[in-house]
Amino acid sequence: MAEIKTIGILTSGGDAPGMNAAIRAVTRSAIFNGLKVKGIYRGYKGLITDEIVDFRTQNVSNIIQMGGTILKTARCKEFTTPEGRQLAYEVMRRHEIDALVVIGGDGSLTGARIFANEFNFPIVGLPGTIDNDLFGTDSTIGYDTALNTIMECVDKIRDTATSHERLFFIEVMGRDAGFLALNGAIASGAEAAIIPEISTQVDQLAELIENGFRKSKNSSIVLVAESPVTGGAMALAERVKNEYPSYDVRVSILGHLQRGGSPTAYDRILASRMGAAAIDAIMDDQRNVMIGVRNDEIVYVPFTRAIKEEKHVNPRLLDTLRRLSI
Ligand code: F6P
Question: Model pTM greater than 0.85?
Answer without folding.
Answer: yes
